[in-house]
Amino acid sequence: AETVKIGINVPLTGFAASDGKSALNGAKLAVEQINSSGGILGKKLELVVYDDQASPKQSVPIATKLIEKDKVTVGVSCSYSGATRAAAGIYQSAGVPYIAAYAIHPDITRAGDFVFRTSFVGEVQGRAGAKLAGDILKKKRAVLITLNNDFGKSLVAGFREKAENYGITIVNEYPYSIKDRQFGPIVARVKADKPDVIYATGYYFTAGPLVTQLRTAGIKATIIGQEGFDTQTFIKIAGAASEGVIITTSLDRDSSSKETSDFIREYEKMFNHKTDMVAASGHTAVKVAAAAIQHAGNTDRKNVRDSIAGTKLVASTGTISFNNLGEVIKNVQVQIVKDGQFRHFAVISDKKLLAPPTR
Amino acid sequence: MEYEISLLTIMGIAIIGALSLNLIVGFCGQISLGHGAFIGTGAYTSALLTGAGISFWIALPAGMFLAGILGIIVGFASLRVRDDFLAITTMGVVFLFLGIVRKQDFLGGEMGIAMIPDPGLGKLGYMIFVLSLALALALFSLYLKRSWMGFAFDAIADDEDTAGLVGINSARYKLIAFGLGTCFAGLSGVLYAHNVRFIDPESFGFVESITVLSMVVIGGTGSVWGVTVAAAILSIFPMWFQFIDDYKLLVYGGLLCTIMLFSPDGLSGIAGRIFSKAGRRKTDASG
Amino acid sequence: MLFLDLLIQGLIQGGIYALIAIGLTLVYGLLRILHVAHAGLYTLGGYLTLYLTNFTGNFPLSISISMIGVGLIGMVIYRLIYQPILEKPPFVALIASIGLFIAMEEIYRIIFGPYGLTFVKAPLQNTLNIGGTYLRQCEIVAILLAAFLISALTLFTRYSRIGIAWRATVTDPGMAQSFGVDVKKVRYLNFFIGSAMAAGAGSMVALINNLVEPTMGSVPSYKALAIIVLGGLGNVRGTLIAALVIGIAESFGTIYLGNILDRDSIAFALLILVLMVKPTGLFAGR
Amino acid sequence: MLRVDNITVLFGGVTALKDISLHTDSGDFMGLIGPNGAGKTTLMRAITGTVKPAEGSVYLQEKCLDHLACHDRIRSGIGLSQQIVHPFTSMTVLENVVLVAGYERTKNPMRSIFSRTRKEEEEKAFELLKLLNIDKIAGEKPTNLPLGYLKRLEVARALALDPAILLLDEPLAGLNQTEARQLADQLAELNRLGQTILLIEHNLGEVIRICKTLAVIDNGTLISIGQPESVMNEPKVRKAYLGEEHHALP
Amino acid sequence: MLSLENMSCGYGNLTVIDKLSFHIAKGSIFALIGPNGAGKSSTIMAIAGHVRIKAGSVFFKDQDITHISIQQRVRIGIALAPEGRRLFSDMTVNDNLAMGSFSLPRKRFHSNREKVFKLFPRLKERKEQRAASLSGGEQQMLAIGRALMAEPELLIIDELSLGLMPKIIDLCYGAISFLKDQGVTILLVEQNTSKALEIADHICVLESGRNVWQGSAANARKDPALISAYLGLTEG
Ligand SMILES: Nc1ncnc2c1ncn2[C@@H]1O[C@H](COP(=O)(O)OP(=O)(O)OP(=O)(O)O)[C@@H](O)[C@H]1O
Ligand SMILES: Nc1ncnc2c1ncn2[C@@H]1O[C@H](COP(=O)(O)OP(=O)(O)OP(=O)(O)O)[C@@H](O)[C@H]1O
Ligand SMILES: [Mg+2]
Ligand SMILES: [Mg+2]
Question: Entry's InterPro entries (chain B) (predicted)?
Fold first, then answer.
């Protein structure tokens, strides 16, 4: 039978495999959900998945292949920024819509009007972090521990941008690389800085050891993380040290939204693994694509693009719409670790603060 | 067709990269684990220049030139340290390169450089351009191998001290090898940058250097056509092996390992054996 | 105070590096192989210890079994991969080793999953206050284990005459045999000890981070190479000192050079500087 | 021709050569003998620049070599055959010699890229192999060849440089008596044709038979130099070199 | 003491020694002579276990040693000073000697070393020097000394006089006669034919991997035809 195809490039092998797997699982769950409720346009939805090892070198031919050989209607990137940015140009020039699930490089959507992103650009979330620290928590002295890649850098750029507005002094910033797990020197220095809040960017595998080591050294300052922390594994790694860590993210575990709670429940059932933000992003991206195709009423790529641009969808990561650049507009969820679980802490919905870039 | 074009372009770029390393490793016997740095130098130079509005046709030689200069500087290191020490030093060069690029805002830092201008040849035109450069480099390599320079390289690769004792200025030859090799590495970097049109530090790291080296070794160090074939195959290996997706890297790693085990002299060794066997059979038959 | 803290952190890191690198030095020293896959054994050590600890609840027992197990696997790797290509030019073994390392990481990912694993109940996590410096028990144990294993190795090589057999085997295995050295045994033993030490390091790192990932060996794979080269290739004492030097340099460098160079580049910048002055490392081993 | 002025070589605490001065004339055939470890090879290495003397200078045809790198010294006119053979194992015996014979072509690396033909060099190399009686192994790789052949290959390579002076370090070792005699005759013949030679050798019989001058080094110092017969008759030479029990020439 | 029975050996597919037989009596000196490439070194290395024996057998002290491992041979009393010396070049003179006595209890090292130093005082002076930096002759002394450290019953020496000055050659031959008087059996390869004829009890002449003459040295000395034949031999 004929199907509607969505193409996915995702790192399934190599260093980025764990994120790739989560994102792909999220996407698979979305397909499962859609198909079990009748598919779209009366056809089944099908994913065409290729492993890109998070490498731009591979995502380029993959994009070409998805467009030309597999004739997908929409492309979804479940990969990192480099691979996504390189592929975005291909999709744009072929006139095929492309949705980045969680890659945060600002230039991705600048490839053109066929490229969208369902996750926050780093700056937006960074600004939310600043509001959280200064406005909600009323902290004054911040230390930044920055993951030295596009993710960490853009988050921190946003944080810095708004810090002053909320009365925060940035005492110091310490960069570290994504491969670091030992933060002894940084921790020693942070201790001497005596901050009252620490804005730490990173992924769960760097954040877990980092938080443990900060607490071991007797540092009591509040730790603010972001969506990179957002997985149960983070809590497992850091154990008791993770209690009280606050993060900005897209996924509200205590959400009253049916879409979100269904996602969390069904994900765990289907994959026997706790869900995380990356999985929710993959899920959301596919849902957005599917809804747009349904809405367009056919698989004409140009029509689908227009329909994506006009999206207004309740997804697992909140209510989604796009601005003229293709950047997502949605609220930022604030979660806190309590008794070994992420719990609702606050929602930031300040439209002006969260406005994504428009050019 | 576009898909095939993009694969062939990638292939051509990889062949240029591998042949350039072959000049250093295969011809002159100087092991280098840092080729990514020179490819990266070419890519960054051209990306910056064309980004600033300068023509691709100027950026291309500029990228080669700068990579070659950097290569000669590293070549000076090879005059001082040898063998495994050199291997690790060149590996250090790649990490240093990355470390510096990462922290330099004008190089895009961690974010890399996006929207690198199109050279304006069209996809097909670009592919033809890349493939003809690859062919030219292969021919040049073949020529070089048979020239007196190649002969002197052989001697240096074999035994540097003795080469000195028969009057060969191995320091100069080594610098030339590094200069030439890295200059062509720069070429492959330039071509890469304008093909993918996005570059970031990670694309030119240690893993990339090792990938190029494994093309050379699997092809058979020093064998021009062997290296060419190996680069062609390995560069699109991930695409070919999409169907075994989850096991792709496992197969790749296993393949590197088994080829080394069963044919340490690489493809050219395998081919050599097949031909000599075939040749023998023929003479058997006739005799 | 900050100075002292940084120094101590540098020593801890250096101690862990030493454990990994000394195993690698042994292998390099004997076979002249840049054994990148050593880091794969380090990762395996972490996984085994983690699984065993979660299963038995006994960390000392688990780490011992893991070290022995990984030591044996090291011997198998030697037998299957390296022995057949010993006579070939060095980069043959290097590429084989890299291939093996890639394959190992992928096998771990396929078997243990791509996500990091953690201890169900991580032992030795209590914090001790030593004169104003806070350290966890596991960090102290890591240092002690490094010190213990390395001194045991030094004594063993000195008093068992295995050291001299080792060195003789390096220069001329054939002649070493002719004077009664069982070269095969020496090589197996060497791989056993080297791999077991890698497993010890992997286990301690697993515990300190409470995290084991398929890719946890990627940094040690090349940093350990930098360390053994800095130490003079094949020189145990030199490796130990180089490991500590790099640990401390990184500790201070992260703070004072962090905005110019990242951590990995610091180690290599140091390495290149030293090699330009002393082309055969801090302590020539050959 | 070749002049060595007051050379002293130190290895850590060991003084390998003490203030040695030596001089060969054009067309000379000088034998250099001395006990094992006397410093003969070290002297040769000081001349070619592979060891740096603590003091002293080396001149070749009145040109000071002190600040030249090894390959430049060789190019100034030294042909060297080493005590421990070092053939290029990846090349055939013939190619070993061809490479060296092309010294003019490899002189300037930049120009070497533009020349390809090896015809002349091959002919010349083959002549040399014939001269040394190893032409029948021309096409073989040196890896497993007996030492006797490799020694002669070293000599052939040295000759391929058309050197002003030929430095030979124990070229006869590893050859049997017949072969040694043959090679010695060929050397004498070369010398007769005008080749200056400095020969280090333990095979006294041959040395005395073919050399025109004889120098003796003991313990890093030159103890005697002159006509072979008269030198060999000096008691201190006999004592150092032959041991007390020898009272007559061999 | 040592017998070869129709031994053939070689490398890969190449056979270099074809059906060689000889017997060496205990306490005698046996010399192998022949032109370059005749296969002398190959024979020796086959006895020491380094070259693959393809057919025939080797007996030592009435024990079949054709297939025993290399490292066992030194324990039953065979020590080797090979062609090219093959010293442990990165190790000091002292360590090289220590390796010589590796198969013996540790305390024998000192007493044996004293004996070697007495024979070659030069080595004592160079005790802490790296073997690779010794002069050619010193290296040869070390190679012989190292073999002696193993207290062999059968001492195998390839190219004894290579690169040695006459005085040391005499010294070495003196040492060999001395060892012979102590009951050590010696197998020599020697290019210097006259020397070999002088000292050996028995000789065996090899040519292209075949035994062309075998017998007592006394007979050989009396056989001018043989001497001229051998001296007249050219290689190949
Ligand atoms: N790198 C070095 N370090 C220390 N000592 C050295 C070094 N090289 C040579 N020697 C010593 O210098 C002395 C002279 O050595 P050289 O090789 O010149 O002797 P030779 O006269 O050539 O002897 P032979 O006839 O045995 O070859 C020897 O005692 C040797 O041990
Ligand atoms: N490792 C090897 N592989 C293949 N062939 C070899 C090897 N070693 C020696 N040969 C060949 O075996 C033959 C016998 O060599 P061998 O070294 O035994 O001669 P030899 O009598 O000791 O000569 P010499 O007097 O020069 O030492 C030669 O033709 C040689 O080329
Ligand atoms: Mg000498
Ligand atoms: Mg021999």
Answer: ABC_transp_permease (IPR001851), LivM-like (IPR043428)
- pLDDT digits over A225-279, tens only? 998 898 888 999 999 999 999 999 988 888 888 999 999 999 999 999 888 889 9
pLDDT at D249: 37
d(CA E126, CA E92): 9
Contact yes or no for B173/D109 (Cβ under 8 A): yes
Among B13, B39, B196, B251, which would you mutate to test the A interface (most chain A Cβ atoms within 10 Å of its Cβ)? B196
Query: Would you call A89 and B198 a contact, using CB atoms and an 8 Å cutoff?
Result: yes
Facing B6 at nearest CB: one of A13, A50, A61: A61
Q: Which tokens in the block code for residue B75?
A: 């070549």
User: Which of A21, A189, A218 minimises the CB distance to C255?
Assistant: A189
* H helical segments located in A196-349: 204-216, 232-238, 258-271, 277-296, 301-309
Query: How far apart, in whole angstroms, are the C-alpha atoms of residue D32 and residue D212?
Result: 11
The C-alpha atoms of residue B232 and residue B164 are separated, in whole angstroms, by: 37
ipTM exceeding 0.90, yes/no: no
Condensed to tens digits (0 to 9), the pLDDT of residues D121-139 reads: 999 999 999 988 889 999 9
Q: Which atom of ligand 1 is nearest to the CA of D51?
A: 1
Burial of D186 (0-12, 13-18, 19+ CB in 10 A): middle
Closest partner residue to B99 (CB to CB) among C84, C91, C265 is C265
* Ligand 1 contact, E35 CB (< 6 A): no
CA distances from A25 to A118, A275, D227 (A): 17, 9, 94
Q: What is the distance between the alpha carbons of residues B137 and B36, in angstroms, rounded to a whole number?
A: 19
Question: How far apart are alpha carbons A105 and C83 in whole angstroms?
Answer: 47
Among C58-67, C158-167, D205-214, the minimum mean pLDDT is found in C158-167
pLDDT at A47 over 90: yes
Which residues is A347 bridged to in the sheet?
A: A333
Note whether C81 contacts B257, CB cutoff 8 Å: yes
pLDDT tens across E125-168, in order? 889 899 988 888 888 889 999 999 999 999 999 988 777 888 87
Supply φ then ψ for residue E106, to 5 degrees.
Answer: -55, -35
* Chain A interface with B: residues with Cβ < 8 Å: 12-14, 49-51, 53, 55-58, 60-62, 64-65, 67-69, 81-82, 85-86, 89, 105-107, 110-111, 148-150, 152-154
Query: How is chain A split among helix, strand and coil, in percent rounded to 5?
Result: 45, 25, 30
Q: Is C133 exposed, middle or buried (0-12, 13-18, 19+ CB in 10 A)?
A: middle
Between D124 and C159, name the one with better pLDDT: D124
Amino acid letter for position E120: F
Q: Which residues surround ligand 3, an ion (CB under 5 A)?
A: D 41, 83; E 136
Closest CA of chain D from E76, distance in Å: 30
E70: CA distance to ligand 4 center in Å?
19
Nearest Cα residue to atom 6 of ligand 1: E133
Tally Cβ neighbours within 10 Å of residue D221.
Answer: 15
* Residue-wise pLDDT tens digits, A75-87: 999 999 999 999 9
Residues of chain C contacting residue B206, judged by C-beta atoms under 8 Å apart: 222
Contact at 8 Å (CB) between D241 and E167?
yes
Q: Is residue E136 lining ligand 1, measured as CB closer than 6 Å?
A: yes
Chunked into runs of 10 residues, chain B (287 residues) has average pLDDT values of 90 97 93 93 96 95 97 89 86 92 86 89 94 97 94 93 91 94 97 94 89 91 93 87 78 88 84 75 49
The values of phi and psi at residue D243, to 5°, are 90, 155
E34 C-beta closer than 6 A to ligand 2: yes
Contact E137 D37 (CB under 8 A): yes
Question: Average pLDDT of E36-47?
Answer: 89
